[in-house]
Amino acid sequence: MDPENQTTKKVAEGIIRGEIATVMGNPLRNGCAACHVLFSIVDKMQVSEQDAADLLSEVLLENSTLNDDFVAMVEDIHMQSRSMGNTFLIKNRDSKDRYIESNFKNVLAEILSDASSHGSEIVLRKLILSYTALSIAQNLGIDLHAATEELYYYMRKKDEETHQELLDSICSVLRKGHRVR
Fold first, then answer.
1. What pTM does this model have?
2. Alpha-carbon span 154 to 49, nearest angstrom
3. Rounded to whole angstroms, how far apart are CA atoms 9 and 2?
4. Which of 6, 137, 163, 171 is most enclosed, with most CB atoms within 10 A?
5. What whole-number distance in Å separates Cα of residue 169 and Cα of residue 180?
6. How far apart are alpha carbons 174 and 124 in whole angstroms?
7. How far apart are CA 63 and CA 3, in angstroms?
8. 19 burial type by CB count under 10 A (0-12 exposed, 13-18 middle, 19+ buried)
9. Do 123 and 107 contact (CB within 8 A), yes or no?
């Protein structure tokens, strides 16, 4: 393995450990705990958000103990401290993993069913809107339901604009997807 890459990962690992300790010692009142760690990597290592996300993923993938600590931090801040998801929070790790696996498989089956029944355009629309709502929720530190409602409120207010932007994006994604094959 490239020694420079290994050094970079070690630096990122130190930042991640430090930020987990900081957040657990002084919980965030607002905002996303995972994003806090991510943007600490961006700031301290002077890398792009994408590079920081890649580094965070690689380090957590290679270090299961640190990954467990990271997940525990996210659960503590986003569920326990904010009293959200308490029924999920009290489950053991195996139960949590089975629940996530079941939801993952159900969502994939739903997407494939929608594609078969309604076409890929509808699936892309649904994915784009879900991702947008998720991004709003993360950036504002609100729950997904509230973010979805805010998004739909905005879209109703600017119906023609947002409808056209969605159509243009869907067409662009489909065109680019056909070029790749």
1. 0.61
2. 27
3. 11
4. 137
5. 17
6. 9
7. 18
8. buried
9. no
Structure tokens at 20: 């987990």
Per DSSP, helices labelled H in the chain are: 3-25, 33-45, 49-62, 64-75, 86-89, 93-118, 120-140, 144-157, 159-180
The widest CA-to-CA distance across the chain, in whole angstroms, is: 53
Owner of token pair 């994006």:
169
Q: Which two tokens stand for residue 83?
A: 């009293």
Q: Which residue has the higher pLDDT, 123 or 3?
A: 123
Say if residues 91 and 83 touch (Cβ distance below 8 Å): no
> Which token pair is 27?
């919980």
Nearest Cα to Cα of residue 58 among 2, 112, 133:
2
120-140 and 93-118 are packed helices; what angle lies between their axes, rounded to 10 degrees? 140
pLDDT tens digit sequence for 57-109: 999 999 999 999 998 888 888 777 777 677 777 889 899 999 899 989 998 99
**Closest Cα partner for 132 from 94, 166, 98, 92?**
166
Query: How far, in Å, CA of 27 to CA of 17, rounded?
Result: 15
